[in-house]
């Protein structure tokens, strides 16, 4: 496709990256209207772990407001899985350590995002310093 955002952290209508936010996202951590990834969160989500407001289809854990399907655990209004809306689903999806785990994931994503951004900013600053009017180009 022409012009779709790609990279480590991609944001756009159709985004492809390690972390993507957009209308349609493909990545390890995807968030958007329609998303596919290891962790997918959106209206329609597919992946290993999926959370969807309308539909979620996952290999391991699916959680959503309406229809959810999974190979292992599902929790939602219309859930299809070996452990659908039962005690095992509750214990798996409603982990008391989930807040700590998500904090660790978010810190990792922030570090992996800020490192390339800071290196790029340093390179841009160096380039602007070399191109300043006090150093005119020599012929």
Write a short abstract of this structure.
With 139 residues, the protein is α/β, with parallel strands linked by helices. The protein has helices spanning 87-93, 98-130; strands spanning 6-64, 67-70, 73-75, 78-80, 83-84. The protein has two helices and five strands, in the order E-E-E-E-E-H-H.
Describe the structure.
This protein is of the alpha/beta class. The protein has two helices and five strands. The protein has a five-stranded parallel β-sheet. 33% of the residues are buried.
What class would the helix/strand composition place it in?
alpha/beta
Which spans have pLDDT < 50 for at least 5 consecutive residues? none
Helix run count: 2
The number of domains is: 2
Helix content: 25-40%
Distance between the termini: 42 Å
Strand order of the largest sheet: 4-2-1-3-5
- Mean pLDDT level: 81
SSE order, as H and E? EEEEEHH
The shape, in one word, is elongated
Instruction: State which percent range the strand residues make up.
Output: over 45%
What is the strand tally? Answer: 5
From the alpha carbons, calculate the radius of gyration and give it in angstroms. Answer: 21 Å
What kind of sheet is the major sheet? 5 strands, parallel
Defining key terms:
single chain, 139 residues, alpha/beta, five-stranded parallel beta sheet, 5 strands, 51% strand
Q: Secondary-structure blueprint of this entry?
A:
Blueprint: E1 6-64, E2 67-70, E3 73-75, E4 78-80, E5 83-84, H1 87-93, H2 98-130
Parallel strand pairs: 1-2, 1-3, 2-4, 3-5
């Amino acid at each position: 496709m022409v012009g779709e955002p790609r990279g480590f952290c991609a944001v756009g209508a159709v985004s492809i990256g390690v972390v993507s936010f957009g209308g349609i996202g493909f990545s390890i951590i995807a968030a958007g209207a329609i998303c596919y990834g290891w962790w997918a969160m959106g209206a329609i989500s597919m992946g290993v772990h999926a959370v969807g407001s309308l539909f979620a289809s996952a290999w391991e854990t699916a959680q959503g407001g309406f229809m959810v399907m999974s190979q292992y655990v599902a929790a939602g209004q219309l859930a299809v899985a070996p452990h659908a809306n039962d005690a095992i689903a509750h214990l798996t999806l409603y982990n008391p350590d989930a807040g700590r785990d998500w904090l660790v994931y978010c810190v990792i994503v922030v570090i992996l995002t800020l490192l390339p951004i800071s290196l790029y900013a340093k390179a841009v600053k160096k380039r602007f310093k070399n191109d300043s009017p006090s150093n005119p180009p020599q012929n």
